[in-house]
Amino acid sequence: MKRFLIKRLLLSVVILFFVSMIIYSIMRAMPTSYVENKARQMASLPGAKSYEDWLEQLEESYGLNKGIVPGYAHWLSKAAQGEFGDSWSWNVPVTEKFKSVIWYSFALAVVAFVLQVSVAIPLGILSARRQYSRTDYTITVFGLIGISLPTFFFATILKWIFSINLGWFDLYGIVGRMHLQLDAFGKIMDMAAHMVLPVATLTIVGIGSLMRYTRTNMLEVLNSDYIRTARAKGLSENRVINYHAFRNTLIPIVTILGSSLPGLFGGAMITETLFQIPGIGYTAYQSMVQGDIPFSMFYMVFLAFLTLTGTLIADILYAVVDPRVRVN
């Protein structure tokens, strides 16, 4: 296992190196006039430096006055030291802005992820146990609705019903107008209320694929010889399902759960934008629209890092879930 981890970590570093180089090359492909316009805007602020000084500083900060390879080497040397520069849109260091918004996305994603797993896996198992029954058809229709609904459409429906017609929740934002006048518990409940519709959106939209995946793998396991043998020995149906069948169903499910790591920290860009939740997804969207190269570069490299980490965790969990799996 130790040798495997070292090998995978080194491979991940190499992959991250080439991915970040590709991302940097794409950033450099943006029109150079944007940097000039940005320098002109910043120079027009009261007490700001001249246009030439700003242009020189922006190009020097990210090596824009160099070729792609020397410029990437300059960026990489800074990034290795934890220095990703200042955000052009937010006028603060990239890492500082990242720290201020990441926890909104993390809280939103964790709650939605727990609800998805808690609902999708039991329903998938129940659907497989009662194959071709009314229960199976009902769960299947529910799952297909979740898979088919676009995020922006379902979020709009929820806002129309619960915010506009019923008036139970605010249309957008993370806090209400009276937030500052509330006590500590009231502020927590206010933020929780604003998270209800975004969490419901992420849960319903994401629940279908995991549920169908669980059902498919459970049906495959239930038709195995060792399941028939366990039933022939007189074991209870609950023990056959919960102990023998479910443990083997977990192996492919681990792949999906491991790949969900980027979603936990990467933010739900569409959902956060629709509800204007100030998380990392919404912040990254605004930064990209405004051409904020430093923050966009950091965000995409961060997503690549999370993807590689999630894949490594999934590989390790294979051996934890099933001792027959040996990493070599």
Concise structural overview:
This protein is mainly α. It has helices at 2-28, 32-43, 51-61, 68-80, 94-129, 134-148, 151-165, 184-222, 225-232, 237-259, 261-266, 269-275, 280-289, 293-321.
Highest CATH level, the class of the domain at 98-290? Mainly Alpha
Q: What is the CA-atom radius of gyration, in angstroms?
A: 24 Å
Shape: globular
Segments where pLDDT lies below 50 for 5+ residues? none
Order of helices and strands: HHHHHHHHHHHHHH
Structure classification = mainly alpha
Structure annotation, total helices: 14
Explain what this protein looks like in three dimensions:
- With 328 residues, the protein is mainly α.
- The protein has a domain at 98-290: MetI-like (MetI-like fold, Orthogonal Bundle), CATH 1.10.3720.
- Helices cover 77% and strands 0% of the residues.
- Helix 7 packs across helix 8.
- The longest helix is centred in the middle third of the chain and has 39 residues, at 184-222.
- The radius of gyration is 24 Å and the shape is globular.
- The model has no long low-confidence stretch (mean pLDDT 83).
Reconstruct the topology from this structure.
Blueprint: H1 2-28, H2 32-43, H3 51-61, H4 68-80, H5 94-129, H6 134-148, H7 151-165, H8 184-222, H9 225-232, H10 237-259, H11 261-266, H12 269-275, H13 280-289, H14 293-321
